[in-house]
């Protein structure tokens, strides 16, 4: 039996990876060109893309959490956070990219807002998950 949550998460993840690879090679598409024309569009895109990835992973893992000291963190949020750190830091060594701390901040704002949204949804629709 297919787990649709995992399939959706994989599709979102692979779409983001494809976009990252395109940009790393200096290619663009209509969405990337449009985002570049919107003031702070790049930061908004970071926030939305990684917030979306976080949301689908939180639901793919059915809201499961892991304790890190006193914090209880969604497994999906932890995975997305690690991915974001690696992806953003890797830009220091890619000639067509440049590392920006504001991009990293936008990524984490998206993850945080998405986690809060997921927390609220899970409390409403699946109280046993929180």
What does this entry show, briefly?
This protein has 130 residues and is mainly alpha-helical. The chain contains five helices and two strands; from the N terminus they run αααββαα. The mean pLDDT is 90.
Q: How would you describe the overall organization of this protein?
A:
This protein is mainly alpha-helical and 130 residues long. The chain is built from five helices and two strands; from the N terminus they run H-H-H-E-E-H-H. Helix 1 packs antiparallel against helix 3, helix 3 runs antiparallel to helix 4 (75-90) and helix 4 packs antiparallel against helix 5 (101-125).
List the helices and strands and how they pair.
Elements: H1 4-24, H2 30-37, H3 41-60, E1 65-68, E2 71-74, H4 75-90, H5 101-125
Antiparallel strand pairs: 1-2
| Count of beta strands | 2
Total helical segments: 5
Considering DSSP H and I runs of 4 or more, what fraction of the residues is helical? Answer: 55-70%
Oligomer state equals single chain
Cα-atom Rg, whole angstroms?
16 Å
Strand fraction band? Answer: 5-15%
What is the rounded distance between the termini?
Answer: 26 Å
Structural class: mainly alpha
The parts where pLDDT drops under 50 for at least 5 residues are: none
Average pLDDT value?
90
Spatially, the strands of the biggest sheet line up as 1-2
Based on Cα principal axes, name the global outline.
globular
Order of helices and strands: HHHEEHH
């Amino acid at each position: 039996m297919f787990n649709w949550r995992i399939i959706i998460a994989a599709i979102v993840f692979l779409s983001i990876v494809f976009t990252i690879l395109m940009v790393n090679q200096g290619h663009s598409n209509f969405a990337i060109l449009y985002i570049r024309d919107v003031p702070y569009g790049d930061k908004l895109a970071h926030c939305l893309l990684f917030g979306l990835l976080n949301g689908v992973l939180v639901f793919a893992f059915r809201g499961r959490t892991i304790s890190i000291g006193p914090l209880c963190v969604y497994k999906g949020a932890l995975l997305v956070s690690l991915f974001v750190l690696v992806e953003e830091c890797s830009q220091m060594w890619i000639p067509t990219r440049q590392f920006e701390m504001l991009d990293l901040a936008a990524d984490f704002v998206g993850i945080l807002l998405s986690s809060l949204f997921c927390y609220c949804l899970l409390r409403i629709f699946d109280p046993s998950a929180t």
